[in-house]
Amino acid sequence: MTVTPAIEADVLRSQDPELAEILLGERERQSTTLQLIAAENFTSPAVLAALGSPLANKYAEGYPGARHHAGCEIVDVAERIAVERARKLFGAEHANVQSHSGSSAVLAAYAALLRPGDTVLALGLPYGGHLTHGSPANFSGRWFDFVGYGVDAETGLIDYDQVRTLARTRRPKAIVCGSIAYPRHIDHAFFREVADEAGAYLIADAAHPIGLVAGGAAPNPVPYADIVCATTHKVLRGPRGGMILCGSELAERVDRAVFPFTQGGAQMHTIAAKAVAFGEAATPAFAAYAHQVVVNARALAAGLAAEGLVVTTGGTDTHLITADPAPLGVDGRTARGRLAAAGVVLDCCALPHGDARGLRLGTAAVTTQGMGEREMARIAALFGEVLRGATEASKAREEVRELAGGFPAYPR
Ligand SMILES: Cc1ncc(COP(=O)(O)O)c(C=O)c1O
User: Fold this and answer.
1) Alpha-carbon distance 267 to 56, whole Å?
2) pLDDT in tens, 221-254
3) By CB atoms within 10 Å of each CB, which of 82, 252, 291, 372 scores lowest?
């Protein structure tokens, strides 16, 4: 049997033309528009090959050497390789690579350390906390007593004084650091100190920056946090999925919290793809990529500021930028719509200084495509033209198509 990477939607053509059209349509969309969603990236063909492999067929509840199903001898090796590569990449004593998503990883971290009703301190949702950090619409808000810390309304920086005060007064069982939208490095040493003072566990939700950590372009939370949760599909450039890192003393609790407490069978094709991504992330080429992601984000942030947008915190340390387009006469939602019409794909987000929505964008995907500071300047100029209404959407769309077409993420 020939194993065709999933990217080759052609394999579907004869069997299911309806779905083939959808895969080809999405491939076309991704290759002719600009992917500035901060949480997205282009995985390598090797990662896609693992995802589209016969490992997808295997049931493997449990852990290597202790499965509930027969026939796991080969997938066991894949999981051991993934665990070893993750441990080495992040300097962790233990890694669990089975979490189906970032949210599943956070759920398992809470399950390992907390009881329902426990108090947890985390960045408030209006300031960039994730749904799993206490949203009433999520298990976290329903099962735990979340207390939110915030960011300074002027600077957009985490209000570290407030974190300390809330930890002292509310005595949380765990403190979560990590965000969906915070563009600056997080002071893990500070959070460790405050957690120790309060007798709390420290959970670092590094879903966003973990790829930068892998490439040495952001500080590593592993030496500070009791548990680090992460996704594998953002800057890290792996398959969609989650991962947990911790010390040996919590290894068993974490493993049990993932399986059997919160999940069933491990997805072995995804775990193999994670192993491939960890292998790629350990290379000098990936380190260069991670640093370029930050260089590009800084260039883009500076370009957006020059166009008149208000960039939160005045810039970025990471792949991520949040900005208020209000000075250009548009709110975040309108801006997102206009940019989408031009083929520039990004998100809206909350802003630290009020109710208005801003824009959230990142440079992970465009950097994978090989774009650099010159292209970031061109993209920033496009923002200015589109948001001011100085260029017709169709003309901007053509410019985006040409720019994206010059940097194909995959061989045609
Ligand atoms: C900080 C943080 N935690 C958790 C998640 C959840 O990841 P997933 O969408 O894979 O469940 C995200 C996703 O963006 C995130 O940014």
Assistant:
1) 7
2) 999 999 999 999 999 999 999 999 999 999 999 9
3) 252
